[in-house]
Amino acid sequence: MCEQQKQVKCKIGPSILNADLSNLEGACVKMLDCGADYLHLDVMDGHFVPNLTFGHPLVKCLRPKWIEPMADAGADQYTFHIEATKDAPTLARKIKEAGMKVGIGIKPGTPVESVMPYADLADMILVMTVEPGFGGQKFMADMMPKVKYLREKFPDMDIEVDGGVGLSTIDACAKAGANMIVSGSAVVKAEDPQSVISQLRESVVRAL
Ligand SMILES: O=C(CO)[C@H](O)[C@H](O)COP(=O)(O)O
Ligand SMILES: [Fe+2]
């Protein structure tokens, strides 16, 4: 398990975007067996991003398959992009009323300051480290100042990175202050996902 400093814990959440989509249940259970703390499901609508993935019915079907192993993980989290809504406070309230934690994500082109007015509505802030839409893209190291800025402002907040995060890029994320790590291809395509998850965790725990 991750060590804890203040209230911030290291959590590793594999993205199943690049997993074998013909066997999603198998992919999800495998990731949890390999030590994942949570699963990251990218709901894409073909409008906000140029890709279509899956919607709420699929999430609903998959959920019973991991509820047992994730019993300790706490409430589910629903992350929305700040750029995709004109009314973040109402959206955040509805997510909370539905019993979930609120995550607010920003795309690479969105200044970190734009999330600040809504930060106290959020349990987590997600800094995208690729242009959202596809797995397997190159990590954008120039997003790290956003993570650093957020960590300095919010020592106890969950700060997540997503996109191109793997063994060669985790140290930059960890040093900048990210504690929730989404990793897709680097984990699901690895020969030994358990080892990759544990190395990602070690990097974050070291930095915490
Ligand atoms: O949100 C995403 C893409 O929009 C994915 O979660 C992300 O890209 C994960 O995949 P990888 O680690 O392969 O980049
Ligand atoms: Fe994602």
From TrEMBL:
Residues at which a divalent metal cation binds: 40, 42, 162
Keyword Magnesium: no
Note on cofactor: Binds 1 divalent metal cation per subunit.
Ligand binding (substrate): 15, 133-136, 164, 184-185
Keywords carried by this UniProt record: Carbohydrate metabolism, Cobalt, Iron, Isomerase, Manganese, Metal-binding, Zinc
PANTHER family assigned to the protein according to its UniProt record, in alphabetical order: RIBULOSE-5-PHOSPHATE-3-EPIMERASE (PTHR11749)
HAMAP family: RPE
Designated name of the protein: ribulose-phosphate 3-epimerase
Gene source species: Homarus americanus (American lobster)
Gene name of the record: RPE-L
